[in-house]
Design brief:
Elements lengths: L7 H27 L5 H23 L14 E5 L4 E5 L6 H14 L13 E9 L7 E10 L10 E4 L1 H4 L14
Parallel strand pairs: 2-3
Antiparallel strand pairs: 1-2, 3-4, 4-5
Helix pairs in contact: 1-2
């Protein structure tokens, strides 16, 4: 059974319940001060925490949690991220040209953040590499392509994907697909 991601309507419902609970804890804290209960300061803390939680849930009801999925993209791992304009990802050495292009587009979508540091107008550059072992004991990093995208726009229509054909030619041939025995 697949898990469903809560949407803005769900978070709005959670916000309502959290607000009601916040009011209840606030009322208990007020009663604690009126009747001079020893636990009154703890209820002040719980009420403050509930206020922060309610505001957080309210903000999640405005901003949807969505992730763009690019068809044909393969799994990648982030190797280096400067937090600004430079990112390096690693992909498997059996990747095809179409998969590499889709994976670079997926990484550009996943790694975009308006909070990245960068000079005004400088693009986010994501480079894809793999690691080859031409002989035992020798490791050769090989850059296969890069994508440049805007740091200011969430959806970048001018994203530029560059594949390094001379490096892609050095990749080992993909293993043949197993025949289906019927």
């Amino acid at each position: 059974m697949p898990l469903s991601v809560p949407g803005p309507a769900d978070f709005l419902q959670y916000t309502q319940w959290s607000a009601i609970l916040t009011l209840v804890f606030g009322a208990i804290a007020l009663l604690g001060f009126i009747f001079k209960w020893g636990i009154r300061f703890r209820f002040v803390g719980v009420t403050g925490f509930m206020i922060v939680l309610t505001v957080g849930l309210l903000s999640l009801s405005f901003v949807p949690l969505t992730r763009t999925v690019i068809p044909g993209a393969v799994r990648y791992a982030t190797v280096y991220d400067s937090g600004a304009t430079q990112v390096v990802i690693t992909v498997p050495p059996t990747i095809s040209t179409d998969e590499l292009s889709a994976t670079l587009e997926q990484a550009a979508s996943d790694l975009f953040s308006p909070g990245r540091l960068g000079r005004t107008g400088a693009p986010l550059e994501i480079r894809a590499r793999t690691v080859l072992h031409p002989e035992p004991g020798v490791t050769q990093p090989l850059y296969l392509g890069k994508v440049e995208r805007s740091l200011q726009e969430r959806i970048d229509e001018n994203m530029k994907i560059t594949l390094f054909d001379e490096n892609l030619a050095q990749l080992p041939p993909a293993p043949p697909e197993p025949a289906n025995a019927a």
